[in-house]
Amino acid sequence: MAGFQQSVEATIPALRRYARALTRNSDTADDLVQDTLVRALRSEHLFHGGDVRSWLYTILTNLNRNRLRSLARRPFLMPLEDNDAPDMAGPEAGQRDIERALAGLVEDQRAALLLVVLEGLTYREVAEVQGVPIGTVMSRLARARVQIKSYLDGERPALRRIK
Amino acid sequence: MIDRDSPVTEDELHAHVDGELAADRQEAVAAWLASHPDAAALIFAWRAQAEAIRARYGAVAAEPVPERLKLDRLARNGRSWRGIAAAAVIAAFLVGGFVGWMARGASAAAPDSFELLTTEALTAHRLYIGEVRHPIEVGASESHLLPWLSRRVGTALRAPDLGGFDLKLLGGRLLPGINGPAALFMYESGTGERYTLFCTRLKASRTALRYNEANNFAAVHWVEGDYGYVVSGPADKFRLKSIAKAAYEQMENRPPASNRSSADQPMSRRGS
């Protein structure tokens, strides 16, 4: 099924972007993409039509959730998740701010927000990827936006541990 | 008709920012925003967040795709060496904590008994995962599964909840093991991958999780309280170790750190 592989291939750059924003670490992100692709190739026979792109986002989102769960059992691994480069001024600092604001979100909220604003998925598609009703996607989105806003407005709550 | 005072919900404000607002509400929301500066400021802030996120990460999609993510290569090799190396490092970290924790009781045990244990488990794994119609003897839905296997094997068994790995318990069976009766639980993923958990009495001191690989299959074993446990599955070291670790933690009744929903069978605690 050459069409399937072509669709997968065409999605790789977007998957890398999503994974990078989700993990904020380029190696971890590409590992996730690689696992996603391997899983997709292996399960090609189970793909019964539909949107390949959504399907790949689903696999990646689930793999990342599993990854965080296993990390959460070993809290001392948390520093791997942080980006400890020193603060800078200028546009770089703004980028770091949004990075840290994202880091402070609960995983499901972060994924919902990124799928909408970075990947351009519709609410319905995000609901399918996350396996929840649209109402849940909306509340995740709302909570993510409130928290990012309060972070950027200077409240800066202590970064919460990744669940 | 545009009702300037029609209540605009917060969901509609998000939909407005994300281009998902129903066509027949667009004018109403725009009018409402014109007279509600607080809401308009919120919209402005949310748009700025989205812009910042795109500015930070948007360019990643324009980067050249690294060699290790090329499909031809992945189809040929499965995980590339770099992926394997990365997984191994992570696995080493994960297991490192364990080894430290386990080390307090560990002492050298006869390696042969471990080898036998793994061989036994992998033999059963290979034999039964290939079964289409009869992979198990007693289904997960039957309430006597755990009491029965616990009684025959001689310890209170639990079938860990591996839903976090997309693995569902199919059921289990009783096997003749070298040291006595053995229990085999089988799990299946949505994509048809099968994993088994093997348990039998074993006289050996406690060990940390150990990984072994043979002919596309791999096994992680550990020994705890006179019983040996082996988790077997496809030779994907990182995944298998994560699964084995989750199984281990649940069998030892340590509460998981994340509050996942637990479909864990309410079987009694391990005696000891």
Report on the architecture of this protein.
The complex is a heterodimer of chains A (163) and B (272). Mean pLDDT of chain A is 81; it is low at 74-89. In chain A, helix 4 (91-103) packs across helix 7 (134-152) and helix 5 packs across helix 7 (134-152). Chain A has seven helices and no strands. Chain A has a single domain, classed as Butyryl-CoA Dehydrogenase, subunit A, domain 3, CATH 1.20.140. Chain A has helices at 2-23, 26-42, 52-72, 91-103, 107-117, 123-130, 134-152. Chain A is mainly alpha-helical. Chain A starts with a helix and ends in an 11-residue tail after the last helix. With 272 residues, chain B is α+β, with helices and mostly antiparallel strands. Chain B has two domains: 10-61, no CATH class; 106-251, MucB/RseB, C-terminal domain (Phosphorylase Kinase, domain 1, 2-Layer Sandwich). Chain B contains eight helices and seven strands, in the order H-H-H-H-H-H-E-H-E-E-E-E-E-E-H. Chain B has a seven-stranded antiparallel sheet, with helices on both faces. In chain B, helix 1 (10-17) packs across helix 3 (37-57) and helix 5 (81-102) packs parallel to helix 8. The longest helix of chain B has 22 residues, at 81-102. Chain B is elongated and about 80 Å long. The termini of chain B are far apart. The model of chain B is unreliable at 78-82, 96-111 and 256-272 (pLDDT under 50). At the A-B interface, helix 1, helix 2, helix 3, helix 4 and helix 5 of A face helix 1, helix 3, helix 4, helix 5 and helix 8 of B.
